[in-house]
Prior knowledge:
Mean pLDDT: 76
Largest sheet: 5 strands, antiparallel
Low-confidence stretches: 1-17, 23-92, 108-119, 534-538, 570-644
CATH topology of the domain at 228-402: Transferase(Phosphotransferase), domain 1
Number of helices: 26
CATH class of the domain at 228-402: Mainly Alpha
CATH architecture of the domain at 228-402: Orthogonal Bundle
Strand content: 5-15%
Radius of gyration: 27 Å
Helix content: 25-40%
Distance between the termini: 37 Å
Strand order of the largest sheet: 1-2-3-5-4
CATH superfamily of the domain at 228-402: Transferase(Phosphotransferase) domain 1
Amino acid sequence: xxxxxxxxxxxxxxxxxxxxxxxxxxxxxxxxxxxxxxxxxxxxxxxxxxxxxxxxxxxxxxxxxxxxxxxxxxxxxxxxxxxxxxxxxxxxxxxxxxxxxxxxxxxxxxxxxxxxxxxxxxxxxxxxxxxxxxxxxxxxxxxxxxxxxxxxxxxxxxxxxxxxxxxxxxxxxxxxxxxxxxxxxxxxxxxxxxxxxxxxxxxxxxxxxxxxxxxxxxxxxxxxxxxxxxxxxxxxxxxxxxxxxxxxxxxxxxxxxxxxxxxxxxxxxxxxxxxxxxxxxxxxxxxxxxxxxxxxxxxxxxxxxxxxxxxxxxxxxxxxxxxxxxxxxxxxxxxxxxxxxxxxxxxxxxxxxxxxxxxxxxxxxxxxxxxxxxxxxxxxxxxxxxxxxxxxxxxxxxxxxxxxxxxxxxxxxxxxxxxxxxxxxxxxxxxxxxxxxxxxxxxxxxxxxxxxxxxxxxxxxxxxxxxxxxxxxxxxxxxxxxxxxxxxxxxxxxxxxxxxxxxxxxxxxxxxxxxxxxxxxxxxxxxxxxxxxxxxxxxxxxxxxxxxxxxxxxxxxxxxxxxxxxxxxxxxxxxxxxxxxxxxxxxxxxxxxxxxxxxxxxxxxxxxxxxxxxxxxxxxxxxxxxxxxxxxxxxxxxxxxxxx
Length: 644
């Protein structure tokens, strides 16, 4: 989409029935419209790999909420390339998504059957955008260089003005194609995003927008170096690790910039990255914001857009944010390094099921020869749980990237979200987070240290909530007004809290979800547990926990009783017991980690649950006493401390 410089590739007849590019032109004006089957590198046949968690749910919603979702499938692993088998269990997510896109852009023919959620072209639409109407007075339109579903891109030469004599790219979007209010708003929003996102070297430069009775003309920088996809193919289908790092740094840098401004691209793929020129070290530019949108840090989007091979699982579940872009970057990184797609099928239905249910293979060549850091980098982007995925700034801090290049880590909006949750949480949760932060090594704290320095600590090494606002102002563009990022930050800054030194900032800035994605998670959890235990190999008593957390002994005892009662209902399953507690998402896992050892002590000393020990009813007969091992003592499994 956008500013491609190659003629469109025809989709082979065998795959034309279901185009895997779900919406590759849905909001675009000009695009190479390259078929994924013809353009994307295809790997040799291999053996499917069973997923580590065959019943893993990629959405935080309960399983019962999936019944109406296109996610239902029995596919367990990425199908062997070229070996995808039929039939699939219904329903087909492809038809559902095509219907949504048809409704969005009013592309339903009169004789076609009705589609879900309506889709009738709307009458009496206002197609006036308020743009200048003098395009042909300023530019000579040249030849077409790319075409998409809803428009095309041409080269042009400026006849006057500040760009006089300069070659530019012009995205032409016919108004006849704008048959719904949504389609009109997409064009209006694309121009607003392009004009407000300024100041990054890897962003295609926006010049102006025009309109007449028939078309909208978006004038931009002309990129003559071709698509990233073409460069991948020219290199035999893949990049070396060192060359892939150079590409990934540029992609992550511009995407982190967009995310900080509150803009999610929603269609990141190799075709939407162009090289500025044909020179060897030409910078990469992201193009085509036709599907992009503004998103507030604490809000979720729900419309299904994107390209099938690159769409994130949560997009198919219709609840997503900027994390969806990081999944797409993970797919690009996988292709760059091995030359094949991580999720592949002959139809878009199969692709969606693979995205939702399968795990990418890291067993086939060349993965065994690549570094462990490269594999870890890709895996942490292709995590189906969006909460465990790295942000763009965190990805730039990953050892695979930072050990090879001097990379400037940008300010990250997730820090603001995590700090807000930390400030609003209980003393118990804060104490658990501080213990967890103390288990991190200097190398693991690199990202946190960079964020702390970006917030501008004073000479004594402290930051206040006002630093959050000041740091954001230094990085703001006009896009923040539409995304309401500033409004969100203002709500954080109005909270009352003392100044942070680095130790407490580290506790507030770590995400336990993301830490759970680390291979070393269990070691961190066990060490954090031991920080609560003064002697290192016994249950924690109420006095110790109350002293460490600043919580009264009575509150700790009440937590212990509620935990015991939950276990009596849910059995010995720790996770089930914790879910039974009505303490909220920011409390219950802390109780699981901190209070379970108390229950263990009561069980041994009183032969009953905490209810009996404190004069309560307790389960009849006392039940089986809890043990430190069962809930994550020094020799048991790692406790799920708490989630943030």
